[in-house]
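seq:
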Amino acid sequence: MADSGRTLDGRRVLVVGASAGIGRGAAKALSRRGASVTVVGRRAAETAAAASEAGAVHSITCDVRDEEATRAMVADAIGRLGGLDVLVYTAGTSPLALVADTPFATWQAMLEVNVIGLAITYAAASKSLEASAGRVVALSSYSRVDPKAGLVPYAASKAALETLMTGLRREQPTVSFSVVTVAYTAPTEFMRDFDPDTSRRLEVLWRAAGSFGYRIMDVDDVAEQIADVVAAPMVVESVTLVGPSTWRVE
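struct:
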């Protein structure tokens, strides 16, 4: 997919959740447009590989569930970049389980990554983003729009993320806050840890609910759309990306 042609020369960008999937693709797309990119991921080897692939300034290994480590990561990135213009937050995790089968610890771990991690990363970067009249771009999910059985906790976390972003617009009007909502996208590691038996059981419910009405999007196409949001001359508060419909009129 061709990009919009808008460049990001000189923009200093931090991509959190860049070791794989959409975050990794976004780091590449942003770097291709001339941005100076720092990539962050939980797994050292994969994050370093993503940085090399994207031509990033450097990589940082960090688990955003650790507040002290997250604040240190942001300070390190800002120091190396010489400031910060854009924060792209794509870190996310999800169990595959019905609400009745999801324990407290699973809820806690997911919310720490999907919501609290964004809040702490932004808080640590807020002064630099305010100084540059910067932009925060956070990845949400179409599951929030259409929660599927087994992904309701994940959908709830993404609803919380979107509310957080709405509130941040009120608290800090000099910074732009953009939510990019995506539907089925591949290749990613989203379903890497899903239990196959649970997946097969829930697929029956998904099909009954008509949850397969859109084609899967390519991760690089989605990444280019994120880069378009970053490069846009106006504030893009929200954009939703879904693949072409699979429904056919007989």
